[in-house]
């Protein structure tokens, strides 16, 4: 039902005394005796090996460097199995645990940060291939949406059945099937190491004759990565006063992206990727809280203790694995974490009061540590915590918090409890005169409402240039602002042209009867403003 029919004539598990793994031999899976224990403890391993009959035995990676096409997808099938048997929240928890491990530990298991595709022979069966590979499969699902994703993967299994595949094959297939150009995603998320991170840098609501115009910007950051993704659709969800949801898509392009939406209501809350479909450098979770007590946000790494509540609250906790924005006004000997921070957002009604516990851990424990190992350089008594209400505002020291070293100020394990927690961002700080002050300045990302030529250059693709026959034009996103295309020759005469639509957002212009020479393509807005021009040559 997810990836297409089972194409082999039978399936079986051959139990062996080998207790260090399993192997997906077609129709006769070798399965270790230790996994046959009368309970469900190893059920995801059984699902993993069975799924290789799609990813590994039906379609097989062309080279060992692309082993993620076998093992990453089989690892994601564990999550698919969990979703089908135990439901959406169990599925999310499975993905959160895997993603947290990928962000905290996988580079330690593997000795370095690695790309998913193009690994060395020594890293063919690395944790990056398995665990981050599953992350990438999940993100492709988040980008495409369930209907397109699963239909596309069924078609992929059919098109390439009993043959070898590579990462470029998958990119081409999914791009053609979805009419989205996924090349930038594949190049920067899958073929390069590290992670990308997205946050709302600015957002404002303006009322205009009964409508509410929401204008904002999304900032893209890099963690151990080198190249910004030029095109990625990220969902953003808006809530009205009755908690009805309205989800739009921000097409992020480079370091800073604008967005603008119009609603018939004033949004009271908004969130990027609320349902966790994009595995960027964050782990988050939201809860609806109706009573006092403790809510543990798990791998978002915030524990909330609600002291008073008179109406339902929606609380979203996010753990960011990326360098936070620096302090603009430096405080002598005070330094903030260089690799993580938290956010609390949501709909908090009047009368809501809660304390938030932020745990720090500088150990190498793979379950709870590998978070603050390099940051805690002095006694834990020198720790503090800072706050800002939004990404535009400076960090300030929280005035009301309790530092709990758990009885030992030198083991790098403890917690900070913030009383009367507010919506905004929180980051660990430490006083240490031996640390060199960070001199980095903040990179601003603000809404400009100006048509960005650089953005359009990335979102409108024209090829091949030069051309002899057909000229292909692809709009990589639906919100380019382009209303019409006009073509002129070198003396400024407009050319009447015929085209056929190959797919949504893709057109082909027949240039065979055109005179040889240079032509100007003019992409025009509805008000006749020229947004972008491109030069082509017909040979």
Structure in words:
It is globular, with a radius of gyration of 26 Å. Helix 2 (68-86) packs across helix 5 (127-144), helix 3 (88-104) packs across helix 5 and helix 6 packs across helix 7 (167-178). Helix content is 20%, strand content 34%. A hairpin with a 7-residue loop joins strand 18 and strand 19 (396-397). It has helices spanning 43-51, 68-86, 88-104, 106-109, 127-144, 146-159, 167-178, 183-190, 453-459, and strands at 13-16, 29-32, 59-61, 163-165, 195-208, 211-223, 232-239, 245-252, 256-263, 269-272, 282-289, 293-296, 303-308, 313-320, 334-336, 341-347, 353-361, 383-388, 396-397, 401-404, 413-418, 424-431, 460-463, 470-475, 484-489, 494-495, 499-503, 506-510, 517-524, 530-538. The model has no long low-confidence stretch (mean pLDDT 93). Strands 11, 14, 15, 16, 18, 19 and 22 form a seven-stranded antiparallel β-sheet that branches. Strands 12-13-17-21-20 form a five-stranded antiparallel β-sheet, with no helix packed on it. The protein has a four-stranded antiparallel β-sheet with strand order 23-24-28-27. The chain is built from nine helices and 30 strands. It is of the alpha+beta class and 539 residues long. The longest helix has 19 residues, at 68-86.
């Amino acid at each position: 039902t997810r990836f297409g029919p089972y194409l082999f004539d039978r399936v079986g598990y051959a139990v062996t005394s080998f207790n260090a793994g399993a192997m997906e031999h077609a129709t006769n899976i070798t399965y270790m005796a230790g996994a046959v224990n009368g309970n469900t403890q190893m059920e995801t391993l059984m699902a993993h090996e069975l799924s290789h009959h799609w990813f590994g035995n039906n379609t097989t990676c062309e080279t060992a460097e692309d082993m993620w096409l076998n093992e990453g997808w089989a690892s994601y099938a564990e999550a698919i199995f969990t979703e089908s048997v135990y439901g959406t929240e169990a599925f999310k928890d499975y993905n959160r645990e895997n993603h947290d491990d990928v962000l905290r530990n996988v580079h330690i298991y593997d000795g370095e940060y690695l790309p998913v595709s193009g690994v060395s022979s020594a890293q063919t069966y690395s944790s990056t291939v398995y665990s981050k590979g599953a992350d990438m499969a999940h993100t492709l699902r988040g980008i495409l949406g369930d209907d397109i994703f699963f239909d596309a993967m069924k078609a992929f299994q059919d098109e390439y059945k009993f043959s070898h595949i590579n990462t470029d094959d998958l990119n081409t297939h999914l791009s053609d099937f979805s009419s989205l150009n996924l090349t930038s995603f594949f190049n920067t998320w899958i073929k390069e190491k590290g992670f990308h991170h997205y946050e709302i840098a600015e957002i404002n609501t303006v009322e205009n004759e009964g409508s509410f115009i929401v204008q904002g910007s999304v900032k893209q950051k890099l963690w151990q990565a080198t190249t910004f993704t030029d095109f990625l659709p990220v969902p953003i969800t808006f809530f009205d006063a009755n908690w009805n949801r309205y989800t739009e898509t921000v097409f992020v392009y480079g370091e800073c992206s604008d967005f603008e939406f119009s609603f018939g209501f004033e949004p009271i809350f908004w969130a990027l990727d609320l349902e966790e479909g994009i595995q960027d450098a964050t782990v988050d979770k939201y809860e609806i809280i109706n009573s006092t007590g403790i809510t543990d946000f798990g791998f978002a790494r915030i524990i909330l203790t609600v002291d008073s509540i008179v109406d339902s609250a929606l609380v979203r906790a996010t753990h960011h694995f990326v360098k936070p924005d620096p302090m603009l006004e430096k405080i002598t000997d005070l330094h903030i974490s260089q690799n993580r921070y938290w956010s609390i957002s949501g709909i908090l009604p009047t009368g809501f009061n809660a304390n938030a516990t932020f745990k720090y851990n500088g150990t190498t424990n793979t379950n709870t540590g590998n978070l603050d190992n390099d940051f805690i350089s002095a006694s834990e008594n020198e720790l503090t915590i800072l706050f800002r209400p939004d990404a535009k505002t400076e960090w300030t020291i929280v005035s009301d918090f309790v530092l709990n070293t758990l009885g030992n100020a030198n083991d790098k394990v403890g917690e900070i409890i913030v009383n009367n927690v507010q919506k905004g961002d929180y980051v660990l700080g430490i006083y240490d005169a031996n640390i060199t002050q960070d001199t980095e300045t903040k990179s601003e990302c603000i809404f400009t409402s100006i048509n960005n030529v650089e953005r359009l250059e990335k979102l409108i693709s024209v090829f091949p240039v030069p051309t002899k026959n057909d000229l292909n034009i692809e709009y990589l996103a639906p919100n380019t602002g382009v209303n019409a295309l006009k073509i002129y020759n070198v003396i400024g005469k407009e050319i009447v042209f015929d085209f056929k639509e190959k797919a949504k957002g893709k057109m082909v212009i027949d240039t065979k009867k055109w005179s040889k020479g240079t032509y100007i393509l003019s992409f025009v807005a509805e008000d006749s403003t020229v947004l972008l021009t491109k030069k082509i040559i017909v040979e």
